[in-house]
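wait is this the right file?? whatever heres the structure
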């Protein structure tokens, strides 16, 4: 079985949904299709939830009415059989009535938001099933709530996913296409929860690993993983093949085509991941798998919204417990660290989550002098930078001779060199690196 995931832009219109149907039917053998919400829906549902949480009933109802109108129009364009249209519109009414029922409901704001936002994936998968059945496809809708769950630490419960999804597939031996929701899941208490933004990729990878799929396909609006960011650099090209290690580095440090966590389950189960373009299905895309990594830079990505924190203290000199104290502050506030560099008396750390920045800085001041820089970007270069390979660093740093560099991480991984620069210099840096290392 193959697992095919389609993002929001891939199911963003009736025409796109029909194209996804064609793609799915052209893939041989059994398959599981994982869908995101239609593009724009998740943001709108977050807005509805915000209105409800803040007691803006009129605004919530107006936005719900707008969304109902949008989805009714989608149904009329997507489906041609009147009976199917009526059933689909009835389903839309039911889902949005469920949303309205949250007005004045005495549950937590966080749970209201999760319940409401989950309706986006429920709507897209139901509409897709209506379409598949109308064109004669052998398809079964599977609720993600029947198998996808996270524990108290918000980690997927792999054993449940494997067992429960396996039972569902076994109970439907004649089914050719299984359709389920990405992103959404059950919490450890059995309530509606999610895998966080971008989680549909993660859902597909978890399912693919659970059933040890032949392949996981991630369909987006980009024809594979590019060697550089095409939004800022001209004449980029998609990579035919890339290793799990390189893909993980690029995804974490800014490559938008792939959710950072999505390669982890696939890599562990050794299931290849194919990145494809819904709107150019004949393009070869990029295959991510265990493979040899050629020498030098293979691809570049950049991550914005970075904050650098430098802690300087002479108590750090030859003090074995100093870094432990620093890390405990970030652990206390559940704030992950992207990069770290050290000297004899200082340590610099970058984060992208500034929710608890003020508290973190106050506690770090008890350890040493603290400086904070904002409006930074991390530029990640992926490839093979192991000790046995030479020459890459020269090309990298020669390319950036006119760019101020705030931090450098080199040697922490054989597959990544990362640099922190001012965001205002990001485009210039990406263009310069493209010229210096690829041309």
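ok assuming it is, sequence goes like this
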């Amino acid at each position: 079985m193959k697992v095919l995931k389609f993002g929001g832009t891939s199911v963003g219109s009736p025409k796109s949904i029909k194209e996804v149907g064609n793609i799915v039917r052209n893939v041989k053998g059994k398959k599981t299709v994982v869908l995101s919400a239609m593009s724009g829906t998740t943001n709108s549902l977050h807005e509805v939830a915000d209105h409800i949480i803040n007691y803006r009933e009129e605004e919530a109802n107006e936005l719900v009415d707008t969304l109902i109108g949008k989805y009714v129009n989608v149904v009329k364009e997507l489906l041609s059989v009147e009976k199917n249209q009526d059933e689909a519109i009835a389903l839309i009414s039911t889902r949005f009535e469920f949303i309205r029922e949250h007005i004045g409901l005495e549950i937590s704001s966080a749970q209201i938001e999760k319940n409401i936002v989950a309706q986006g994936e429920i709507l897209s998968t139901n509409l897709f099933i209506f379409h598949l059945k109308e064109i004669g496809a052998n398809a079964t809708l599977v609720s993600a709530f029947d198998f996808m769950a996270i524990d108290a630490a918000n980690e997927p419960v792999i054993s449940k996913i494997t067992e429960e999804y396996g039972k569902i597939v076994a109970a439907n031996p004649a089914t050719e296409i299984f359709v389920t929701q990405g992103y959404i899941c059950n919490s450890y208490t059995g309530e509606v929860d999610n895998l966080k933004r971008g989680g549909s990729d993660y859902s597909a990878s978890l399912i693919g690993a659970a059933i040890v799929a032949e392949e996981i396909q991630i369909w987006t609006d980009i024809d594979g993983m590019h060697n550089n960011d095409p939004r800022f650099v001209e004449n980029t090209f998609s990579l035919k093949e890339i290793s799990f290690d390189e893909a993980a580095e690029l995804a974490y440090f800014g490559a938008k085509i792939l959710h950072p966590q999505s390669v982890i389950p696939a890599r562990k189960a050794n299931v290849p991941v194919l990145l494809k373009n819904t709107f150019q299905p004949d393009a070869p895309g990029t295959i991510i798998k265990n493979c040899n990594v050629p020498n030098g830079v293979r691809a570049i990505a950049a991550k914005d919204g970075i904050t650098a924190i430098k802690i300087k203290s002479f108590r750090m000199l030859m003090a074995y417990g100093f870094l432990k104290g620093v890390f405990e502050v970030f652990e206390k506030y559940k704030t992950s660290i992207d990069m770290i560099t050290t000297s004899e008396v200082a340590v610099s750390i970058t984060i992208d989550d500034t929710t608890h920045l003020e508290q973190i800085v106050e506690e770090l001041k008890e350890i040493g002098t603290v400086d904070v820089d904002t409006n930074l970007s991390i530029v990640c270069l992926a490839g093979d930078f192991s000790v046995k390979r030479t020459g890459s660093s020269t090309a990298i740093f020669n390319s950036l001779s006119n760019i101020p560099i705030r931090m450098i991480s080199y040697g922490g991984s054989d597959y990544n060199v990362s640099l922190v620069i001012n965001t205002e210099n990001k485009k210039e840096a990406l263009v310069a690196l493209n010229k210096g290392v690829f041309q």
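The chain has a mean pLDDT of 92. so i think its the right one actually
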